[in-house]
Design goal:
The chain has one domain. About 20% of the residues are buried. It contains seven helices and no strands.
Amino acid sequence: MEYLLVMELIDKDQNSEYVQNFKLLLDTTKKWGNELTGYDLEVAQADFMDELSVLYLDYFQNHIEEGKVIAFDYTETLLSVYQYINDEYVDDKYDRLLRVDPQVSSWLFACIIKTNIEAFNSFFSHLTGRLKDQEFENYLETYKLGADLTGGDIPENAPEDHWWWYA
């Protein structure tokens, strides 16, 4: 029943910039592993996660059920995307994080990636499972006392439960 109500709202609001951009973003993943491989795939994954996070922060964090309903139509694609993101994007970003001195600039990088992971999980975990993020959680917990972000570093719409931005 809830699915039908949300779909009705989405149908009434088809011109929503956020809904259209979300659908276009999901469509881009259909090329992963087929037309896009290697470095191009790595860039596409990073772009996808960054754009997904922006859509989440700007609109869908307050309309997450709408995002989940839209995502339902992409279940098959999302199941394959999940593997790419979990096995390549998350692992690669964590490896890069470990190669940087925590006192330099890695806190901002870790915050961005953690928010990207949280956006993915908010939209898709009911379809795909959660992305592995325990390493980022541990990193953020370990280095939070040394964090030094200025107001300009924190995304305008970062939710309060994304504590890492406010540590």
